[in-house]
Design a protein that fits this description.
With 230 residues, the protein is of the alpha+beta class. It has helices at residues 10-13, 19-23, 51-60, 76-79, 83-90, 152-155, and strands spanning 4-6, 38-40, 70-75, 96-102, 107-112, 138-143, 147-150, 169-171, 175-178, 186-189, 194-196, 213-224. It has one domain.
């Protein structure tokens, strides 16, 4: 699958990358081309995303990220159904995009703004890290409908319970969670087989699939070349 990018965003994103990144070829081909037009991205080999889905997702990303080449860090079809393996493949990359295709054909996921290795860091007073991440994190649906659910703090929360609006990312050896407060936008078990989705205060989202409980057919994690964290 090739994604197509229009270069009208070119002038607004060049300042967001380093010259060394451009010289080393880690940025999108659009920055290595002149003029206005469309340019193919490298082949992503996603089995979850159509070209239309990819373009919608790409348009939702922070502009500074769209200059980098997307790369498939993890796919259950190749790497198996293990949360431990997933973390091994992705934990030093930031940001990442999680894509889930259910056994019923729905496609949804999350843009995760912080590296997953933060799950192992200690919080204040030496306690284990709970939620982490930033307000750039968002959840989305791609099939049957395309919707983006950003952090409620971007537009101002309408909820009286502000304690639940900053719960972006959480994980341990047994589960991965996106969003919180009166529910979780995405919950995935350690076997990457089953999950749950519900409305949560962080994103004020609808459940990302109609049945709420879902079985995972394929799960993929996309990263960006040059965005590895030390």
């Amino acid at each position: 699958m090739f994604a197509i990018f229009h270069s009208t965003r070119k002038s607004s994103v060049i300042a967001a990358i380093g010259i060394s990144d451009a010289k080393q070829g880690r940025v999108s081909p659009v920055l290595n081309s002149s003029g206005i037009g469309t340019y193919p991205f490298q082949q992503l080999n996603s089995t979850c995303l159509s070209q239309e889905m990819f373009w919608s997702l790409w348009s939702w990303l922070p502009i500074r990220i769209t200059v980098y080449q997307p790369t498939l860090l993890f796919t259950s079809e190749e790497h198996g159904y293990s949360l431990t393996t997933l973390f091994t493949k992705v934990e030093n990359h930031s940001p990442t995009v999680i894509i889930i295709k259910t056994s019923m054909g729905e496609v949804f996921g999350a843009y995760c703004s912080s590296p997953w290795r933060k799950r192992n860091e200690k919080a204040a007073f030496g306690s284990k890290q709970g939620y982490f991440g930033t307000g750039e994190t968002f959840v989305f649906t791609l099939l049957p409908e395309m919707n983006k659910y950003p952090w409620v703090g971007i537009e101002g929360s309408t909820s009286n319970d502000s304690k639940g609006t900053g719960l972006f990312m959480a994980a341990d050896n047994y589960m991965l969670v996106i969003g919180g407060g009166n529910g979780q936008a995405i919950y995935i078990d350690a076997d990457l087989r089953f999950g749950n989705t519900d409305t949560c205060l962080t994103f004020n989202n609808r459940p990302l699939c109609p049945t709420k409980d879902f079985e995972i057919q394929v799960i993929e994690v996309i990263g960006f070349v040059g965005c590895e964290t030390p």
